Amino acid sequence: MSVCLTLVQSARRNCVDVWPYLTDVLRRIAAIDPGDTAALEALLPDRWVAAHPGHRLEQREEESREAQARRRRKQAARRIAVAQ
What we know:
Layout lengths: L1 H12 L4 H12 L7 H5 L3 H7 L6 H26 L1
């Protein structure tokens, strides 16, 4: 169970549409030899979405950028408050 949740969270962090990603990974992973690291690495979310660009979530990517900008503003405000 924790492996599936890790895959889901990793896909979200990489702005990948989770359902098509998991469907494809679960279908393909059974046929891959455990020693074939290249084939397994191709299933990582960042590499998978590069091969399937239609499944990148643009809205999620925008939300991530906005959240990062908010964190930077808060950090800058804290630095200013500490310096005063």
